[in-house]
Amino acid sequence: MKQHRNNYRFAAALLIPLLLLMFSFAHAEDDEEDDDDDHESSVSRSTSSTSTSGKDKIKVETKVDTTTQIIKIMDSDGDRIPDGSDPHPNISEIYIVSDDNGNGIVDKFEK
Known about the structure:
The chain has two helices and two strands.
């Protein structure tokens, strides 16, 4: 009886740290994916230059604001047609066929 109890303690002492280590790696990978999904960056740059024209000095100042946004467009069936313009958003276009003349050959291949 005492021997079995020691075996269980030994197994638990090995498994618990291993499970915690696996959980921490999985959780860290999920955090990285979430950060990349909703990324929006903004860059602002200011430039000034002086131009001489005769006696008058003209100071020209230029400001450029650039904003980058990541927009996700859903494609539920994976046929590379966005759901908004896909006539069959849940069925891939490869499975949609038409045989208007009823001869058993897809009309797309008869042309």
